[in-house]
What does this fold into?
Amino acid sequence: MRNRQRAHDNQSCQDESTTDAIQFPQLNQPAPDFNALTTDGMKSLSDYDGKWLVLFSHPADFTPVCTTEFIAFANKAEDFRAKNCELLGLSIDSVHSHIAWMRNIKENFGVEITFPIIADLSMQVAKAYGMIQPGASDTSAVRATFIIDPEGVLRAMVYYPISNGRSVDEFLRLLDALQTSDENKVATPENWKVGEPVIVPPPRTAKEAESRADEGYEYTDWYFSKKTL
It folds into this structure.
């Protein structure tokens, strides 16, 4: 019985240690700051003040799924910039490995990577953003994506398994949705795209609910109404 209890206590300590080692940023809170070496020199979160930022991690350079993702991000880079948004990649590889991989992508696929990539050998940025998932890998950052607003606040985060690539178009869509919600104080329905009706915030009082049908919206019920911007 003592041995069983001791084993249980040891396992509990290990579990707590593992949990303590993993940090997760919080939505609608300031994104973790960083000062990191990239393929464009040193970069800090403050370098992106006044702009939206998509920070995304990948498991390793010179891997096939990651290569397809970087090609997709590069092909959409101007679309992100048109929305006042910059891209910033990250993996736990050296800056020389990043540069070699970027050159390889250009040579083999004809695509130039125009955004910087963090060389996070110390894993400081990856750990601060919860990119290291021991259940997936002890040494690689999973496919995590973070959208940070111009005030440095974390607005969205999405995790993918190492085996499956992301949809870059989804992050463009989500960026549009976030910007539209901020500008118009509305919500957006499933798979919403620019130009489609948005959701009007529901009434906050019984009196407001009573009059909602007469307010000129695309009315379905007191809690569900849409409008076109």
